[in-house]
Amino acid sequence: QVQLVESGGGLVQPGGSLRLSCAASGSIIRPYVMGWYRQVQGKQRELVAGIAVDSSTNYADSVKDRFTISRDNAKNTVYLQMNSLKPEDTAVYYCKAARINILTPGGSWGQGTQVTVSS
Question: How confident is the model at residue 1 (pLDDT cuts 50, 70, 90)?
């Protein structure tokens, strides 16, 4: 089972940028589909971006052209570059690893990192 630890969250002004990292241990991430979710208190967790084993990517419409997901298998790490941040991007961001489909139940989750976009 892969263990995941997110980092890089914090407070940023609207229009600013942050890069989140998800460091994996216990297993290599190469055979895993990886994704970033976010959750606002009181709402369901939503998929923000996913990256497949072949590094193909998909994004939620709300973050397209602003966020970029990438993976470095050599470093066993996944990243989420977030640009042009908006107050509505404020949430706890979670990293997930799945063997087949990032949307199905199960898989491994990190503990989350808080992102706050505010002036």
Answer: confident
